Q: What sequence folds into this?
């Protein structure tokens, strides 16, 4: 029986291993983590992450061939294949601060694997890592190997949160990078055989190590670039009276471009896009490619500009001040169908409004008050470090309340900002919301989810990203 152990029980490790266990009943899969609360949650009825379909997969396999444990060293030593899915946060200090990936957790995992291993192992990079990480890991393992053979593989994940289980069941591609040596090729085949239990062979791509590592960063950079491109266009649409949805539809009909990732919004978020692009920028700079680095830096700059532009539009529209005014925030997660708030644009928008002394009332169906307070108290990049290094109980922000219903959030508000495209926000009773708001009642749609025409008929002053502006908004120019 093949034994798989995955170090790290987060957004990548948990769902990936659960699906491997479901699809490969003859393989024993153990997910290990040093965080006791996290492992306890994986073994309970309330999993630590929200992902549609995940509950069913875990319940089907848990206790049969899927296990969650804090006995890290025991399970690593018994495994044939060890997936490493630990954090690779952006460095906050020292060389490469603000750009380079911090490989502290990776290095300690590699040293521990070398120390406890009593048999040959395949070590698989599952978390996003800078290109050439495998070389560093290889050096640590071989210099501490005590005669044991280790093969390093890169097997980056391409999951989208909110659809991770669907993505795992039916992936576009599975990418496996390995050394072009007999041992490396054998290791690639062993991992390929695992995925071949449910993934068609033509979708399993085998490359060299560096191509696999770089492909992950490249894929995220290209996706983020598309979002920044359409967001840059949204500013021009507002200035000229064009409609960004119509422009995106026309552009997306070109088969060379395609329609995906062309929705204008308040900006992209999530744990990967910004981090991976910063990482790419750093690698380019280290390899003497400043022009390439500057090209990718611009993708992040446009994303930051979009968030600033949104805040400026809110403040400028409301007589140039939101001081003491109640602003309802609908949605805090970075996208619908996930409770994940990492790098969510809502953080920067809320901080911008709080900086102008707004009173915020926030509602998100999946994000807790504790998480929101923590996110708004944290410094940039701190979110990706272990929880014991984050602010334990941040001082609650007095001018902020978190409520559990959209109508409560919007009652007596001067304005509503929609920052996540949750389906329920499309079908709210906006007449009821309007009746209970201060007048003039503003609605700022950062995700283009509402029917602006209908809302204007109710009486709202509506701002939709990239859409022709209300006369009111034209008279109150936003300085960005």
A:
């Amino acid at each position: 029986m093949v034994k798989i152990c995955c170090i790290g029980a987060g957004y990548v490790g948990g769902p990936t291993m659960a699906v491997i266990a479901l699809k490969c009943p003859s393989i024993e899969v153990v997910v290990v983590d040093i965080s006791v609360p996290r492992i306890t949650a994986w073994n309970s009825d309330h999993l630590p992450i929200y992902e549609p379909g995940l509950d069913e997969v875990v319940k089907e396999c848990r206790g049969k061939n899927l296990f969650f444990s804090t006995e890290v060293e025991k399970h690593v030593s018994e495994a044939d294949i060890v997936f490493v899915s630990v954090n690779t946060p952006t460095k906050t200090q020292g060389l490469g601060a603000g750009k380079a990936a911090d490989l502290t957790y990776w290095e300690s995992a590699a040293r521990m694997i070398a120390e406890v291993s009593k048999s040959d192992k395949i070590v698989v990079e599952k978390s996003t890592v800078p290109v050439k990480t495998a070389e560093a890991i290889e050096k640590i393992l071989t210099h501490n190997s005590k005669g044991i053979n280790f093969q390093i593989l890169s097997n980056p994940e391409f999951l989208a949160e909110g659809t991770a289980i669907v993505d795992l069941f039916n992936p576009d591609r599975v990418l496996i990078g390995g050394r072009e040596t007999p041992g490396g090729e054998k290791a690639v085949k062993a991992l390929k055989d695992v995925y071949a239990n449910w993934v068609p062979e033509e979708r399993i791509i085998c490359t060299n190590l560096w191509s696999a590592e770089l492909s992950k960063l490249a894929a995220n950079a290209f996706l983020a670039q598309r979002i920044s491109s359409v967001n840059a266009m949204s500013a021009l649409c507002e200035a000229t009276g064009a409609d960004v949805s119509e422009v995106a539809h026309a552009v997306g009909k070109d088969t060379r471009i395609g329609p995906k990732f062309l929705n204008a919004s308040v900006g992209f978020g999530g744990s990967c896009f910004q981090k991976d692009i910063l990482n790419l920028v750093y690698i380019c700079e280290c390899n003497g490619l400043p022009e390439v680095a500057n090209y990718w830096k611009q993708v992040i700059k446009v994303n930051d500009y979009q968030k600033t532009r949104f805040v400026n539009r809110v403040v400028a529209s409301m007589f140039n001040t939101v001081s003491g005014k109640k602003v309802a925030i609908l949605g805090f997660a970075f996208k619908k169908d996930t409770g994940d708030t990492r790098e969510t644009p809502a953080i920067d928008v809320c901080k911008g409004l709080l900086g102008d002394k707004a009173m915020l009332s926030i509602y998100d169906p999946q994000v807790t008050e504790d998480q929101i307070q923590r996110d708004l108290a944290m410094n940039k990049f701190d979110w990706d470090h272990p929880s014991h290094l984050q602010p334990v109980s941040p001082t609650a922000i007095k001018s902020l309340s978190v409520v559990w219903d959209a109508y409560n959030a919007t009652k007596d508000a001067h304005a509503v900002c929609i920052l996540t495209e949750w389906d329920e926000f499309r079908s709210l009773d906006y007449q009821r919301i309007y009746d209970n708001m201060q007048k003039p009642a503003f609605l700022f749609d950062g995700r283009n989810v509402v029917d602006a025409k209908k809302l204007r008929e109710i009486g709202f002053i509506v701002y939709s990203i990239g859409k022709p502006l209300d006369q009111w908004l034209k008279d109150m120019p936003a300085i960005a």
